[in-house]
Amino acid sequence: MSFPPPLSKEREAECFRKKALGDEDARQELILHNLRLVSHIVRKYYSSAKNQEDLISIGSIGLTKAVDSYKTTAGVRFATYAAKCIQNEILMFLRSQKKLSNEVSINETIDVDRDGNPLTYIDVIAAEDTADEDIDRITLSRRALRLVYTVLSERERRIIELRYGLNGKKPLTQREVAAMLNISRSYVSRIEKSALETLAEKMKK
C-alpha cells in the first residue's frame, strides 16, 4: 500500500495553523500525509495479525483524533503524539474483541513481534515511536484525560485510574481492582465498560 510522504516540519506547522482557523483542506492534508505512520505501527507491532487492514482502519481513527486534538504549544512532536493515539485506538479495538465476561490483563500477550517475542498490551501502550519525550501512556489525548476527571462519576473515575495506571501508578487487573475496592470483578468490568463508553461518546463531540 502506497502512502503520501510525510510533510516537512514547516508545512506541518502551516497546516496546523490553517486547521486552527477552520481550514478543512489543511486538516485532511495532515491526516493523509500521516497515514504512513499508521501503517508503520501496524507492521511493527502487529506483523503476524491477520486483520492488518482492519487495524490500519482503526489506527486511522486514532490518527484523526490526534490531528483534531493536538496542541502545537504542548512541546511534543506531532509524530510522537499521534503514535500514542494510534496505538491506543488499536488497543481499545483489540480489547473490545474480547468477551466482556473475560478478564483482560494489561500483561496479556496479544501478538508477537518480528523476532518472535511476545507482545503484551503494556508493550503497545508504553512503546515509543520516534519519541522525543514520553506522553502519558494510557491516554488517548489530553482531552480524553481531562474528560476522565470531568464527566465520570467518582467510582468510574477511581476504577479507570486503577485499571489504566493514571497519575503514574501501576495498572491493575480487574481482579486486583475488585479486591482493592471490595467489589466483584464482574462489577468492575461493568463500570469500566460504562466509563469507556461515556468517554468514547464525549470524544466524538
CATH architecture of the largest domain: Orthogonal Bundle
- The low-confidence parts are 99-104, 125-141
CATH superfamily membership of the largest domain: RNA polymerase sigma factor, region 2, helix turn helix motif
Question: What portion of residues is helical?
Answer: 55-70%
Q: Report the portion of residues in β strands.
A: under 5%
Number of domain modules: 2
Radius of gyration in whole Å, from Cα?
17 Å
**Topology order in helix (H) and strand (E) letters:** HHHHHEEHHHHH
Major beta-sheet overview: 2 strands, antiparallel
Overall pLDDT metric: 77
The count of DSSP E runs of length 2 or more, i.e. the number of strands, is: 2
CATH level-3 fold name of the largest domain: Rna Polymerase Sigma Factor, Chain: A
Q: Helical segment tally?
A: 10
Anisotropy-based shape: globular
Q: Give the structural class.
A: mainly alpha
Q: Which strand order does the major sheet show?
A: 1-2
Structure description:
The chain is mainly alpha-helical. It has ten helices and two strands. The chain has a two-stranded antiparallel ribbon. Strand 1 (109-112) and strand 2 form a beta hairpin. The longest helix has 20 residues, at 185-204. Mean pLDDT is 77; it is low at 99-104 and 125-141.
Secondary structure layout plus pairing:
Blueprint: H1 9-20, H2 24-32, H3 35-45, H4 52-69, H5 78-96, E1 109-112, E2 118-120, H6 121-126, H7 142-148, H8 154-164, H9 174-181, H10 185-204
Antiparallel strand pairs: 1-2
Summarize the structure.
The protein is mainly α. Helices cover 59% and strands 3% of the residues. The protein has helices at 9-20, 24-32, 35-45, 52-69, 78-96, 121-126, 142-148, 154-164, 174-181, 185-204, and strands spanning 109-112, 118-120.
